[in-house]
């Protein structure tokens, strides 16, 4: 008996095992939303960082405004906008895709700052040498700046990967059957919330520890002087 509540250990384990496959389906959705959201954040963040570094203010200022606007508005508001407002203008997306895009959009503002810090860490002498060799801006960025910046920003990008993973439960408000939403449905139907929610907490702990380990491993493996790209 614990806190006045009788507890049958055998039945608790049986219940946990019985709901594990259902939680596994929610886990797959969570991982898919995490990876797709991170991909969108990484790509859009890089685009925003590149635009913000352009010397022409007519390009850099709008990019900075967009980045600040995204970062300073709540993720939930952006999710509701994409899910409820866009259909009024003929843009109808599945709930899962809408949620992943909202995650990617929100975190693109943060990853753009990570990219910016990595870009600014590249020695200016190398940029001047690229100009002296008459390399185009795109080739300088893609073959000199970016390969050196990426190894330096891997830990920060990894932190945002974990953050996106932990924000996936927000997608439950648009009926995405991710891990936490599945656990809540199990609790609603069985009137037992402790076990499914505890299992979700444990699964998230394991996932974040694995993600942090993989990011740390990647950071150790990448050459600090930069990635060497071969071009024809």
TrEMBL record:
List the GO cellular component terms: ATP-binding cassette (ABC) transporter complex
Task: Give the subcellular location.
Answer: Cell inner membrane; Cell membrane
Per UniProt, the keywords (alphabetical) are: Amino-acid transport, Cell membrane, Membrane, Transmembrane, Transmembrane helix, Transport
Q: From the UniProt record, which GO molecular function terms apply?
A: transmembrane transporter activity
Cite the Gene3D superfamilies for this sequence.
MetI-like
Read off the SUPFAM superfamilies from this record: MetI-like
- How does this protein sit in the membrane? Multi-pass membrane protein
Q: What is this protein called?
A: Ectoine/hydroxyectoine ABC transporter permease subunit EhuD
The coding gene here is ehuD
């Amino acid at each position: 008996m614990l806190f006045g509540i009788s507890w049958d250990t055998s039945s608790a384990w049986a219940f946990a095992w019985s709901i594990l496959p259902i939680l596994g389906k929610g886990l797959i959705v969570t991982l898919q939303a995490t990876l797709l959201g991170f991909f969108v954040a990484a790509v859009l963040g890089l685009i925003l960082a590149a635009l913000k570094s352009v010397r022409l203010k007519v390009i850099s200022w709008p990019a900075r405004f967009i980045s600040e606007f995204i970062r300073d508005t709540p993720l939930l508001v952006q999710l509701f906008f994409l899910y409820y407002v866009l259909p009024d203008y003929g843009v109808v997306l599945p709930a899962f895709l809408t949620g992943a895009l909202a995650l990617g959009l929100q975190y693109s503002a943060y990853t753009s700052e990570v990219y910016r810090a990595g870009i600014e860490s590249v020695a200016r002498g190398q940029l001047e040498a690229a100009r002296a060799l008459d390399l185009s801006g795109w080739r300088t960025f893609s073959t000199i700046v970016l390969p050196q910046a990426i190894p330096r920003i891997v830990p920060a990008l990894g932190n945002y990967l974990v953050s996106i993973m932990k924000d996936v439960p927000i997608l439950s408000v648009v009926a995405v059957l991710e891990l936490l939403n599945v656990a809540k449905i199990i609790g609603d139907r069985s009137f037992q919330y402790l076990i499914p929610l505890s299992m979700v907490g444990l699964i998230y702990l394991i996932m974040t520890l694995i993600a942090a380990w993989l990011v740390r491993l990647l950071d150790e493996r990448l050459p600090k002087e930069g990635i060497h790209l071969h071009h024809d």
